[in-house]
Amino acid sequence: MENHIENAEKLRLEALSALEGVQDEKSLEDFYVAYLAKKGSIPGLMTHMREVEDKAAFGAAVNKARGDVTAAYEAKKASLAQKALQARLAKDKIDLTLPGEPMGVGHVNPYRLVIDEVIDIFLAMGYEVCEGRDVETDRFNFELLNVPKDHPSRDMQDTFYFGDDYLLRTQTSAAQAHKMTEMEPKRPIRMIAPGKAYRRDDDDMTHSHQFAQIEGLVVDKDISIAHLKATLELFAKRMFGQKREIRLRSSYFPFTEPSVEVDVSCFNCGGKGCAMCKGTGWIEILGAGMVNPRVLEACGYDPNVYSGFAFGVGVERVAMLRYGIDDIRRFYQNDQRFLKDFPLK
């Protein structure tokens, strides 16, 4: 009868010798299949278990062969992996003394250029900046601003709601309501509220479901529409040039009374009439008005003592007019071909 225990030892020595000649991962894989895989030579020794009398000694010999060869295989595998890594590192070696690739200077989105410029103008006039919240309650977005239940802006088709009470603010005026209600004791206010507003309004290239507003609020004693006009006149001259003039046209907003639309003399043609101003010489830039006494009272201010004015300017509209941008979506696409025209100062 063939000595199966001796065969196990011979196979162990054969495998270890064969492993010494393995120099690449493909040969190592072939070695594993030949000796250690499920159908390999060493596991195949166990098929002779029934043929041997000293099963314990035979099992020990097979286990020793499997253990020694497996350990040697793992060591060889690690060695080959290390050699492969060293070869790759040598091939991809970086010369740290070489100069790095120059980084291009970034560009400012005109959206941000306009916001920063408007903020600078009003900070110089003594206003504070209150950004407010994107998610608002019905109370601060509508009720405190004298927007009745049947107002079109309440329509679910215009406003993004979260249940019955929470919504994405439809104007940054909500920040003004927060400021007035939180001001204790009641004191004068001079603030602007820049930020995003959200409405379901994206029918053409000049409208978007999200847009930026900068709304202003002044509350104090003896504030009149003359203060409003002087403030907006100063803003227009600093924003669009010293030769610019403004005009006020009667309008309607639920949170101001009286309300006005504000036009600026066309900065393209100087008021003579052109395609930009549609031949009128004027361009509408914002809405404004005296704070409605109902809003003052709802926010805790005595309308017999305090008065005020409010205004709101659309950031994208100003940027589109100033820089000749034809599509509001360009502000949000992060297209470098578009942004390259607005370098850092």
Please state how the strands of the largest beta sheet are arranged side by side.
Answer: 1-5-6-10-9-8-7
Order of helices and strands: HHHHHEEHEEHEEHEEEHEHH
Spans where pLDDT lies below 50 across 5 or more residues: none
Q: Give the name of the CATH architecture of the largest domain.
A: 2-Layer Sandwich
User: What is the distance, rounded to the nearest whole angstrom, between the alpha carbons of the first and last residues?
Assistant: 94 Å
Oligomer: single chain
Q: What is the global morphology?
A: elongated
Number of helices: 11
Structural class: alpha+beta
Computed CA radius of gyration, to the nearest angstrom: 39 Å
Helix share bin: 25-40%
**In this structure, how is the largest beta sheet organized?**
7 strands, mixed
Total beta strands? 10
Query: Which topology of the largest domain does CATH recognise?
Result: BirA Bifunctional Protein, domain 2
Q: Any idea of the CATH class of the largest domain?
A: Alpha Beta
- Determine the CATH superfamily of the largest domain: Bira Bifunctional Protein, Domain 2
Strand content of the residues, in percent? Answer: 15-25%
